[in-house]
Amino acid sequence: MKKSILLFAAIVMVVSLVACGESEKPVSTKAEESVNEEAGTDNQASTDSEVEIEKEVDGNAESEEEADVFEVSSDKNEEVKSSGNLFDKDKVFEYDNGSIVMKLTKAEFTTKFGASNADPEDTWANNQINSDSEIYFHLNGSIQNDRTDSLSFGNSLGAINFSLLYDDKHEFQNTSTAEEENGTKLGASSIDALSEGTIHVYFQVPKTVAESDKPLVLTVNMLGEPFEIKIR
C-alpha cells in the first residue's frame, strides 16, 4: 500500500514538472517571436528606407541629366565686332574735272577703328567707343587733292561734309580725320595741296541705329551739292 502511494506521488510530481516545462516554453517562444518580429520589422523598415533613398538619389541624378542647362557668359564686356562692309561697291565723288576725287570704300558699325599702320596701344592712332549704349558708324576711304591749296573736309567750313539720317527724322553730325606720318597717326581733317590722304569719317550713334532695320541714309555734301547714299 505504501509503495503504491509513493509511486502515485512520484507520478504526480513528474506530471507537474512536465506541465511546468511545457507552460514555460510557449511563453519563452512567444517572447522571442515578438522580439524577432520587431527586429524583422526594423530591418525591413531600414531596408525599405535605404531603397527609397537610393531611388531618390537615382531620381535626382536622372533629373539633373535631363535638365536644360543655361550658362551666362563670364565675359560681359566682350568687344562688339565690326558689322562688315555696308557698301555694295565703292562710292566715288569727283569735282572740277577730277581735281578733287573722294573714294569711300567702306562703311561699318564698330566700336573701334584706327590708322592703317597704327600701333594698337597708341591712343593717338586709334579711336574706341567708351559707352555701352553707343557705337560708331564709320566710313573709310581716300581723298585726292590735285589743287594748289589744302582741302578741308568733314566740318561746317569744309568743302566736303557728311550727315547721317536715321528713320527719316534723326540726324547725326560727323567727326573726320586724315591719317598722317605714313598711316601711323590720326591727324587733322584736311588734305594737303597736290597730295592724297586716307580719311576716316565717323558718327557716334545709339546702338539702336545699328540694330534696327529702319531707314538709314548717308548724305555727302560736296562743294554745296548733296548726294544721298541709302545704307538700308
Automatic annotation (TrEMBL):
Superkingdom to which the source organism belongs: Bacteria
Transmembrane segments: none
Comp. bias regions, Basic and acidic residues: 24-33
Key word tRNA-binding present: no
Keywords: Signal
Compositional bias of kind Acidic residues: 59-68
Signal sequence region: 1-21
Protein name: DUF4352 domain-containing protein
Naturally occurring in which organism (per UniProt): Mesobacillus maritimus
